[in-house]
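Morning!

This is the sequence you dropped in the shared folder:
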Amino acid sequence: MNCPDGIKSLTDLINFFTCLIKNSVIPLLMTLAVAGFVYGIIKFFLNPDSEEKKKEGKSFMVWGLIAIFVMVSVWGLVGILRNTFLPNNVGTFLPEMQTE
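The structure's back. Tokens below.
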């Protein structure tokens, strides 16, 4: 989905920032959470002798899972609220999300 090119009004500005967050920031945060989880798994299994490194790996795994869970939960909650209060995406700012 392409973000709006020109910003001529407040609605265009909101569309631009919403599109930027939706297409760039959220995937980046999800990628970082998954990468942190995978890093924790690797650190845990590659250091079977060091309890300190295993503990650090567990910490990365736990925080990665918490981050993934929170992001997916918020994503689901936003979807439920949007479908409850804006049926058929009426009134959403992003035109590409509207169904016809």
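Headline: The helical segments are 10-46, 51-85.

More detail when I'm at my desk.
O.
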